[in-house]
Design goal:
Chains A, B: One of its GO terms (molecular function) is DNA binding. Chains A, B: Residues 2-71 form the HTH merR-type domain. Two copies of one chain form a homodimer. With 252 residues, chain A is mostly helical. Chain A contains 13 helices and two strands; from the N terminus they run H-H-E-E-H-H-H-H-H-H-H-H-H-H-H. In chain A, strand 1 and strand 2 form a beta hairpin. Chain A binds a DNA duplex (30 and 30 nucleotides) through residues 4-6, 15-18, 20-21, 25, 34, 36-39, 61-63.
DNA sequence: ACTCCCGCCTCCCGCTGCGTGAGGGTCAAG
DNA sequence: CTTGACCCTCACGCAGCGGGAGGCGGGAGT
């Protein structure tokens, strides 16, 4: 059972050119040629082509497909599993975008016109346009940054207002603690530091103790962040820094 | 507030080269240049870039994005809705592939080794390799073909056996009817023709009366299909053809 | 005022995965 | 022995950038 390019092309729903291409790059060489130079594909070639098409559908680059197919001791089950994961990931990403779009539609319907500033107004003093670039430099490319960007896009106006309220509540309690004269490395301060960490984790990204202390250092090192906390209460940046460090140390 | 390429690039998580490219093709021209020729982007440019990135994420080609963004009276809500649909479609497709992969994994786990022949063995005499190409020529590219291909991939071995059983049951009853001497355009024959159509619809694709009569004609025109029905009972191809036509006429 | 170095500029070539001819041989049917 | 449908091999083109060469600009430090 030998097939010509045209037959194979029609059967596999690809163009002849594609088969030529696969031949050129060595991805799918026909098992033989006629005396006139015509490509002859056999059943095994068809099987291989089916696999190729399948992987292609999944978005694999041709080179990678070649590696997969030509790896003799590659575990097919592992491949399937891997593909499954990749697909699930892609589905997840697409679904996130869908919800983002739904949000946007909701906003339009209500005439809310969710401008970028509006989306970030909950950040208070932190003007996103002013600091976005810096944020990118500091955290760009990290998982944490990706997460927070992603979530920011999904939150509704109410969500963000709720977040703001929670932050303010925490801030009031923190100021009260400072006013009470409690030490920055005392149990209450550490508890509030921990709460601060969890607020970040809840709303934005998984904030490890390492990341948290990094943030703490920034609060005293970067004047803009310092200013934000200092307006809540003078001395707060340094106090919070100490509390976060104390908390991180005690937990590890 | 003017930004340089580098700043914009970092903020938007794209490369400088990409911004150059967008400038070149006119997709995003910076609002101005400095005396030295440096590109200067303002807030509006950033907004536009955000939209561009968004549409790009969704897989739109740049040209189309330009059309969308430059269409002054384009309804943004309509766009969102359209994107939503596209995304939903994509998710659906990916999910189908996931289930297909899951099936394949199940089969591997049980050591079943679902070879192509096995997958199609329920087709009986119809050797897929022998007819796949023809099928493509006849139906390739049609919605019906796509549907049946898609479903075939999702069916489990049990599903396919069930389908086979249902077909055989229908076949037996059809043969019995012929044996009884009932006319091919009588009510019983038409009822069984209708059932035939519904079996196809249930298992493979939406089989309209038009498609159904097309199939009927093929049963008498194509010797391979003729042979399939003739082995069930001599004269069955022609009888079934008549019954299907009678049924289609009476229903329209 | 001078020097650095980083960032900006404009070419321009390269990559993937083919599409789409051009120009020419081949094969089966009539 | 011709037709028409295939087949062959170049070979260029396209999107959407990546990446580098070669050269200017600018602001921070000395």
């Amino acid at each position: 059972m030998a097939y010509t390019v045209g037959q194979v092309a029609r059967a596999a729903r690809v163009t002849v050119r594609t088969l030529h291409h696969y031949d050129e790059i060595g991805l799918l060489r026909p098992s033989g040629r006629t005396s006139a130079g015509y490509r002859r594909y056999d059943e095994a070639d068809l099987d291989r082509l089916q696999l190729i098409r399948y992987y292609r559908e999944l978005g694999f680059p041709l080179e990678e497909i070649a590696e997969i197919l030509d790896d003799p001791d590659a575990d097919p089950v592992a491949h399937l599993r891997r593909q499954h994961e990749l697909l699930s990931g892609r589905i997840g990403k697409l679904q996130e975008m869908v919800t983002a779009i739904e949000h946007a539609m909701e906003a339009r319907k209500l005439g809310i016109q969710l401008t970028p500033e509006e989306r970030f107004e909950v950040f208070g003093n932190f003007d996103p346009d002013e600091h976005a670039e810096e944020a990118e430099q500091r955290w760009g490319g990290t998982e944490a940054y990706r997460q927070s960007q992603e979530r920011a896009g999904r939150y509704s106006k109410e969500d963000l207002l709720r977040n703001k309220a929670e932050n303010e509540d925490w801030g009031r309690r923190f100021v009260a603690l400072m006013d009470s004269g409690a030490p920055a490395d005392g149990p209450e301060a550490m508890a509030l530091a921990e709460e601060h960490r969890q607020l970040i984790t809840k709303w934005w990204y998984d904030c490890s103790y390492e990341i948290h202390t990094g943030l703490a250092d920034m609060y005293v090192a970067d004047p803009r962040f310092t200013a934000h906390y200092e307006t809540l209460r003078p001395g707060m940046a340094a106090y919070l820094n100490e509390a976060i460090h104390a908390n991180a140390i005690s937990r590890s």
